[in-house]
Specification:
Blueprint: H1 2-10, H2 13-41, H3 44-96, H4 105-122, H5 129-156, H6 160-184, H7 189-213, H8 218-239, H9 251-262
Helix pairs in contact: 2-7, 2-8, 3-4, 3-6, 3-7, 3-8, 3-9, 4-5, 4-9, 5-6, 7-8
């Protein structure tokens, strides 16, 4: 449920940034006002503890940001690699289709071209559940038709050449399943919640220390929350790479589509 809410927020990256930034600034202000109470008491012993707590919290925040960023980049690299893998598998199947019996070559090539067209048409829309379901249905139908032609070709010409086409077609179907699994592999919601919680506590402790000294610094009250918000939104952007500024390039499939059009 939390992942679904996050996905809706990510449909508008500016909204995500404004929300996170507002939260960090609010917690920073809360910390400063609480710190002012300590400043009024002139309790030097308690003030001496603030630096250690602040350093520990910010160190933990840095560790969590690095850990979450690494998770996001790993998922991004996996999705990017699968685009090239799928393009290679489809391209190989398209070339090997020329070795099949004549009656199956034109329909198989047409289906493979339609496969690529459908993938490129629906990929930008996969954040819409209805469009995602429709795209998966269309891809599934094309795979069924391709497999039907493959089995018929194997019966008509049970040769090693036909087997190589079936192998590449298998890889195409498997890669489609891998792409769907990678698309659904999000960073766990518990990690996001922990990250935001520690970031908020980091803003509170930093401003609390400033309040305890009776002075406000733009570095701690504005720039630190801003920096934290930017980094968190960047991690969101990378981990949900279908929207936002950082997206998975579909260029390998676009190049394949152009190649198929020229060689049909």
């Amino acid at each position: 449920m939390i992942n679904n809410i996050l996905a809706r927020f990510l449909a508008n990256e500016l909204l995500v940034f404004l929300l996170v930034m507002s939260l960090m600034l609010a917690f920073s202000e809360i910390g400063f006002r609480i710190g002012l109470r300590l400043y009024a008491t002139k309790d030097a012993a308690r003030k001496g503890q603030i630096g250690g707590i602040q350093g520990a919290v910010l160190g933990l925040l840095g560790l969590l940001l690095g850990f979450t960023f690494a998770m996001a980049v790993d998922r991004y690299d996996t999705r990017r690699g699968l685009v090239l893998k799928e393009a290679n598998a489809i391209g190989t199947s398209y070339l090997r289709a020329s070795l099949l019996p004549d009656s199956h070559q034109p329909p198989i090539k047409d289906l493979l071209r339609h496969y690529v067209d459908t993938r490129l048409e629906y990929w930008p829309l996969v954040d819409d559940p209805a469009k995602l379901a429709e795209g998966m249905r269309l891809i599934g139908n094309i795979q069924t038709q391709l497999w039907k032609h493959a089995t018929e070709s194997a019966k008509e010409a049970p040769t090693d050449i036909t087997a190589t086409f079936i192998e590449s077609l298998n890889q195409t179907i498997d890669t489609d399943a891998e792409r769907i699994a990678a698309m659904r592999a999000e960073i766990p919601s518990g990690v996001w919640l922990l990250l935001v919680l520690v970031a908020a506590f980091g803003c509170i402790t930093t401003s609390y220390g400033a309040g305890a000294e009776g002075t406000r610094s733009k570095l701690g009250s504005v720039f630190l929350p801003l920096l934290i918000a930017v980094v968190i939104v960047l991690i969101f952007d990378i981990s949900h790479s279908r929207v936002g500024l950082i997206q998975i390039s579909q260029q390998p499939l676009v190049d394949l589509q152009q190649s198929m059009t020229l060689n049909q």
